[in-house]
Design brief:
By secondary structure, this protein is of the alpha+beta class. The protein has helices at 2-14, 27-37, 49-61, 70-78, 106-123, 136-145, 181-196; strands at residues 83-84, 91-93, 103-104, 127-131, 171-175, 200-204, 210-215. A hairpin with a 5-residue loop joins strand 6 (200-204) and strand 7.
Length: 241
C-alpha cells in the first residue's frame, strides 16, 4: 500500500501543469532576444540608391570606363591611368587583396594620402584599404557570396546607373574593424564634410565592416595620368648671327 502511494506521488509531480521546469522562455528573455533582432544602426553617412546613381553619373561625366577584365586593368595601370595605393606608415592594405588590384585613380590616391595622414596625426594608427579597383569579372564573383554588392554589368539600360563604382578605379573600401567609437566618429565627420562639399560620396556599411568611398575628380582636378600630361616644350634651336 505504501508503495502505491509513493508511485502516485511521483506521477503527480510528472503531470503537465505542475512540472517544475517551464516549457517556454521567460517573458523578459523573449523580449530581450526580440530586441536584438531589431537593432537599427545609425550613421550620418548612410548609403542610398540615390547615392549609387550619383556615383555612376559622376563616373559618366568624368568619362571613366568600367573595367571589364584583367587585360583592360593591365593596360590602364601601364598607362598610369590607374596608380598604386600610397601605402606607408599611415596606410596599409588587406594582405588578402591581390597585388594587381592595389590600384586607384590618381585623384583617389591624393584623397588616400590626405585622409590617412590626418587620421594618423589624430590617432597614431594607420588606415587599411580592403578594396580598391575591381574588374567586372571580380564583381560578378563577389555577388555570388555578397548579394549586397552592386551589379557588375547593366542587365538593361535602367541598370546602368547602379553598377559598382569600384569598376572605375575611383572607389575604395576602408576597414573599420578594430576602430574605437571615437575613431569611427572621427572618420564619419571627416567623410561627411567632404561629401557635403561634393568631393566624395561615402557610405558606412554594416554587412561588411567598411567605409565605402567614391572619390570624384574634383577632389584633385589637376591630377591626371602621366601619359596624358603635356610634354615640356622643346627648347628653341639657337641661331648664330
Amino acid at each position: 500500500m505504501h508503495a502505491v502511494v509513493v508511485v502516485m506521488m511521483f506521477a503527480n509531480i510528472a503531470m503537465p501543469g505542475v512540472s517544475p521546469t517551464p516549457t517556454h522562455k521567460p517573458g523578459h528573455l523573449v523580449t530581450h532576444h526580440r530586441h536584438l533582432r531589431h537593432i537599427v544602426y545609425h550613421s550620418p553617412i548612410k548609403g542610398s540608391h540615390e547615392s549609387l546613381v550619383r556615383q555612376n553619373q559622376k563616373a559618366d561625366e568624368a568619362e571613366l570606363e568600367r573595367i571589364q577584365d584583367d587585360a583592360q586593368l593591365e593596360e590602364l595601370t601601364r598607362n598610369q591611368e590607374l596608380v598604386s595605393l600610397p601605402l606607408g606608415r599611415s596606410l596599409t592594405v588587406d594582405p588578402k587583396l591581390p597585388e594587381d588590384r592595389r590600384y586607384c585613380r590618381p585623384w583617389a590616391r591624393t584623397f588616400l594620402k590626405d585622409f590617412s595622414k590626418a587620421y594618423y596625426e589624430e590617432f597614431k594608427a594607420p588606415l587599411q584599404v580592403n578594396s580598391a579597383v575591381r574588374t567586372a569579372e571580380v564583381q560578378k564573383k563577389l555577388r555570388r557570396h555578397n548579394r549586397n554588392a552592386a551589379l557588375a554589368t547593366a542587365a538593361d539600360p535602367e541598370d546602368g546607373d547602379i553598377v559598382s563604382p569600384h569598376l572605375t578605379g575611383a572607389a575604395l573600401d576602408i576597414a573599420k574593424r578594430g576602430m574605437t567609437r571615437k575613431q569611427r566618429t572621427w572618420v564619419q565627420n571627416y567623410l561627411l564634410k567632404l561629401q557635403n562639399s561634393g568631393l566624395i560620396d561615402a557610405e558606412e556599411e554594416f554587412r561588411q565592416p567598411v567605409f565605402h568611398i567614391s572619390v570624384y575628380r574634383d577632389y584633385d582636378p589637376l591630377s591626371q595620368p602621366v601619359a596624358a600630361r603635356p610634354e615640356a616644350e622643346a627648347p628653341l634651336p639657337q641661331t648664330v648671327e
